[in-house]
Amino acid sequence: MKNKWSEMLDTLSVDQQFVVKAENDAKMDKVRRFAPLILLVVMTAIGAVSQKNFFSWANIVNIMYQMSIPLVISVGLSFVLLLGSIDLSIEGMMGFAGSFVAFLVANKSNGNNFGILGVLLVVLIGAAVGAVTGILHTKARIASFIVTYAVGSIMAGIAVLVYRGTPIQVTDQMFVAISQGKLFGIPYITLIAFAVFLVGAVIMNYTAFGRAVFAIGDNETAAASAGINIARAKIKVYALCGCTAAIAGVLQCMRLKLGQSSLGTNQMFPVVTAIVLGGGSVSGGKGGSLQSFVGVLIYAELANWLTLMGVDTNMKKVIQGVIIIIAVALTVTHDRKTVAK
Amino acid sequence: MTQKKKFSLSDYSQYMVVFSIILVFVIFTILNPKFISAYSLQNMMVEVSPLILLACGLSFIIYTGGIDLGAGAMVSATCVISGLYVTRFGNGIIPIMLLVGAVLGLLNGVIVTKLKIPSFIVTLCTQNLWAYIALTLCPNGSVAIDLQLRKTLKWMTAKAAGIPVIFFFALAAVVILFIFQQYTTSGRSIFAVGANIRAARLAGVDTDRAQIMAFVVSGSCSALSGAFYAYKQLSAVPTIGDALTLSAIASIALGGTSMAGGRGSVLRTAVGVVTITAITSGLNMMGVDPLWKDIIIGVILIAAVYLNSDTKGRDIIIK
């Protein structure tokens, strides 16, 4: 079918080709817009059938709680994927943020007690490291998957150095209060996550910076010609992603009251799966905060169902991989000129 | 065509690997003369051999401008398969693993070229499959190979003329891969794809075939590396590859192979592997906390890629 398609393109004139291409793009856009919603309905239906009290308030709160940390990660990662880049340093960054914040607040291993200042410091470090990653990516011109892979390993290494073998147990009152507190039955951690998401959505949709990221992802050359400072926007994106990864790490630490590098393990990949499920593209320009939200929700329901079916963690990761490959293969352009490396 | 010479650090990056290996050996020898003792060197030869195989194979994917983030996980999976099935096949496991690796690589290559998905996404996904194989076959950690069988596997780490046999294998692999990359059409077309895939296609190169070939070569080498680890450790270790992807990519970058594709050499990669291994084992001998290892290799990777990167092509979009 694919060959027929490219043969047909060859026989058309340039303007006809353009029309065909535009129609095809419009069709793709429609798929992108509606497929996630259909998926969401299907997953909800499956959930309702396989679980007795699926629509009970307790279960809805439970799903929202499971969404929290992926949602926070998705805020920064959505920006990065919109650029068509990737941030593989998220897991290392989360491990570092969780370990270092545990080191700074009241804990059983040392006498530190910086409280909220410690949290702020860790989030700031996250943003600063993200900015350095962005500078290395744009100014030193290193491909994002290489530089973020290296930065991720460095941060994971530093995380282990912070506690040297024995994970730090947190005793901080604020951490205990946040991890156990609830408002109208909704855990504080979920509320914080939704607040972070709202801030991210506002930045993405209502600021010049957010529009610039969409423009760069859609067509970087055109965006540069239009006068957008590409390097500065990308550095901001990586700083934002580092910041949200650090927040996610801190939330993980609050949840478990434990600081160790494995807080970040297996956190990034599900979120990439979720964003792709929501209609985001790994090659840039497609997606948005709402799409990411829907994606994370679909993913939470899927994960819930897989656990119910007794699928083990390793198999879950394989399923995530298959989902990403199928979703990307369906949405990527397939004409002969497309190059994948 | 004459070019005006202007000093630029990246012009000298091709000599980086030679400088760094000399520097590393001189510094560590001064700090600790035992560093170049026969015993230490023999140990290092055993240590570098599987990593040389892994990194030299991975180089071919890097030549095309792609990457395999799952190389380490593939080593884990093949180490486990070799360790568990060596009891049935004996030393015949080595050719079997070559075949298994080729199939795993083929899967990556076909997904990248036929479905047109960037390799870092594909390999990020498929590495979960390799990890699944490793962890499902060995759910409770390492499994030691039968004591009786160990005698028949010892030859790999035994020494001939003072040099471990495993190192001869690694050298032979490097020579074969070098001949493949320099003197065969397939080898040259892999470079052509990395340098300019559209031009290569117009020149009549079957670019899909070249890309798949790179993944197959890399898969076979990773699988062989996994088998070597099984021989070296005398057990099936499901987590052996976890840290290897980083070391392998860093070795390739340190060797001076361009991460954007199109230029490089397995000889450089092999020297890069020796340098990286010398750094880690040297620091180890000096009593530096092994926790620093990943941090140091990560920094080396960034620095090496920066020095190699082509700073002239300003208009090229890097994602």
Protein architecture, described:
The complex is a heterodimer of chains A (341) and B (319). Chain A has a two-stranded antiparallel sheet with strand order 1-4. Chain A has a two-stranded antiparallel ribbon with strand order 2-3. Chain A has one domain (35-331). Helix content of chain A is 74%, strand content 2%. Chain A is mostly helical. The longest helix of chain A is centred in the N-terminal third of the chain and has 37 residues, at 14-50. The mean pLDDT of chain A is 87. Chain B has a two-stranded antiparallel sheet. Helix content of chain B is 69%, strand content 3%. Chain B is mostly helical. Chain B has helices at 16-31, 38-63, 71-89, 93-114, 119-137, 147-153, 165-183, 185-195, 197-202, 207-233, 244-255, 266-285, 292-308; strands at 143-144, 159-160, 163-164, 235-236. In chain B, a hairpin with a 2-residue loop joins strand 2 and strand 3 (163-164). Chain B has a domain at 45-245 and 258-264. The model of chain B has no long low-confidence stretch (mean pLDDT 87). Chain B is built from 13 helices and 4 strands. Classes of the chains: A mainly alpha (341), B mainly alpha (319).
Short summary:
Chain A is an all-alpha fold. Chain A is built from 14 helices and four strands. In chain A, helix 3 packs antiparallel against helix 11 (230-256) and helix 4 (90-104) packs antiparallel against helix 5.
Helix content, binned percent of chain A: over 70%
Number of helices of chain B: 13
Q: Please report the total strand number of chain A as a whole number.
A: 4
* Structural domain tally of chain A: 1
Uncertain segments of chain A: none
Radius of gyration of chain B over all CA atoms, rounded: 20 Å
Strands of the widest sheet of chain A, in order across it, are 1-4
Mean pLDDT of chain B: 87
